[in-house]
Hydroxyethylthiazole kinase
Amino acid sequence: MSGFSTEVIDLRAAREALWETAPLVHCLTNTVVQALTANALLAVGAAPAMVDAPQEAGDFAAVASAVLVNVGTVHERTAEAMRLAARSAGKAGTPWVLDPVAVGALAYRTALAAELVELRPTVVRGNASEVMALAGAGAGGRGVDSTAGADDAGRAAVELALRTGGVVAVSGEVDLLTDGQRTVRVGGGSVLLTRTTGAGCALGALVAAYLAVTDDPLLGAVAAHAHVALAAERAARTAAGPGTFAPAWLDALDAVDGETLATADVRLTA
Amino acid sequence: MSGFSTEVIDLRAAREALWETAPLVHCLTNTVVQALTANALLAVGAAPAMVDAPQEAGDFAAVASAVLVNVGTVHERTAEAMRLAARSAGKAGTPWVLDPVAVGALAYRTALAAELVELRPTVVRGNASEVMALAGAGAGGRGVDSTAGADDAGRAAVELALRTGGVVAVSGEVDLLTDGQRTVRVGGGSVLLTRTTGAGCALGALVAAYLAVTDDPLLGAVAAHAHVALAAERAARTAAGPGTFAPAWLDALDAVDGETLATADVRLTA
Amino acid sequence: MSGFSTEVIDLRAAREALWETAPLVHCLTNTVVQALTANALLAVGAAPAMVDAPQEAGDFAAVASAVLVNVGTVHERTAEAMRLAARSAGKAGTPWVLDPVAVGALAYRTALAAELVELRPTVVRGNASEVMALAGAGAGGRGVDSTAGADDAGRAAVELALRTGGVVAVSGEVDLLTDGQRTVRVGGGSVLLTRTTGAGCALGALVAAYLAVTDDPLLGAVAAHAHVALAAERAARTAAGPGTFAPAWLDALDAVDGETLATADVRLTA
């Protein structure tokens, strides 16, 4: 369990550091999920800023605490802003997350994501189809849903992590995260997360927030996944359906403190 | 009542087919309502995907189960994506819905909508002003609100349906839907729908979802309108105001099953 | 207290005029907050319309009751639409609001906002950093959050108001509003407003709505701030966290009537 023998304490410390630091997370993300993403960041104590004009994205990424690049509704202008932000983050040593929404299913964004991967994102977060497509291991899904399980993508995740030198996180019933050496599984969560548009995209933003307050990108990514899963379980207990789940989940993101986060279902498996 | 003598069974079957099939609905819609639209689709059991880059829209429309084109915040790039998606859907025989938001009030989108109508949408869904403007029968409203009643637009709807060879649905206190031969009225609903931004736009997406699982476009459009109306009545009973109505409505969209849908206020009137 | 000796009656009358008139508010605003903004306008009884294509923005601003220009996610196309809308509103004598989100922190939008200020917005609404940057009095904040207090910006607000001939409103723990001659403070509210993305942006839209129904821009701006603050207090009493606060706040925006608004913490201080 080397690297995670102290995981309980680390998760607690990460959560507390998030409250104390309130990192500024620069999000270049799709227009469907911008509001939920910003609210999720505010709920955990981070400060969101959505800046996706090519005239501003590079400069802003350089001063942000962390950057999220999500290609969900990407087009020519925002693709250019993403390139500039990713390069700027890399140059400044700022951690950044790539969320390759629907990569594999659509040629334009698949080419863009391949280009962004070369800029070595600190974390890639996606579902199994997306990660496999990005690793060149699969033909991709039918859109934003994954058609493969998280475990199927385990090998592809390790390969991709070794290629980027960063972390790859695969969302599924059980999440799988790896830095190429260590592999961690995060359980829990709720099926209602899959019925809330943007929950996965917001998770990508929370990964970015945690990267800003932890030295170990794998720990940061794990903390974000555990935070989302625990909040989802809590929200599922009070929600009357998929509509009331979303506000309850934001309430729960706020309510999950360091002590609670330390109880998450996190297992080092390799 | 030919064509609707079995309407109770049909509505139930349509609802159940939606759950079983989980159709992929490709939405090119306005940025104000993307999140509510995606959540409404998820709530009824469909799979939303918002793809509006010209580089991707045509290819994606060809593989989607149904397509929604909503011109609410259209501009040059998205107009081009809409043209490509509509043409691609037509070529592939994929059903598609045109929602002519504020057409008649603004010249740019009115010209675009006239162009899209020539591509023969399976369903046009709008309010009375929009449908009348599209049919060339009126001068249009003052924006997104309708300034005419659904019944006033009845004649325009029939004319437009005969022109497109499809269905025209006019939202109002009582909704009116026609394929040029048969005219159906759907009652019920709640005034709170008019105080929730994007409820009408989400209805357009649900029409697309139902088109993917029914052979009769009029039945598909009626099922979507009935589903929205029943869910609104249910949500209005628990909501404390227009803000809590929206999540309650999503919960209710999920909760309305085939048996419930079969109780909708649906009348064949011509 | 000249100009505000009758403030209680004026606030009540403004609220009632809003319900009766249902002004059409044309919003050119950022994509993160469009849905909340539209829902807030609907909740208070106004009619929102988001139109930001250059082909339409000028024409639409001329027929709207009021216009909001918010530069939160501005880029080349929407900047052009904003210029056209602001010029058109000015020409038509239509009141318009400028919300200089993150101005001071980013060069591109700072230049745009400086240009828009020359077109003399009826009201500028921002936080202390933004107002100070716009007045040339500060170096700006780190993004969308203010790093200065509302009172620090008081002098800058007066200077800016004298320059535009309009009103400047500075949001903070206590809001400060001035037309260069009179200065008003509005207290109350809830910290949960700062944890809801777009609450400040929605306030800008409500200012526009109130401008459409009052002759005195300072009174209109004060009414909107008081309305938002009272609704926030009410919502904070029932919300379980930052997620359930947003729908409760929309409910409360609807519930605050003229009598309630007249109880707001509004003080003429200069």
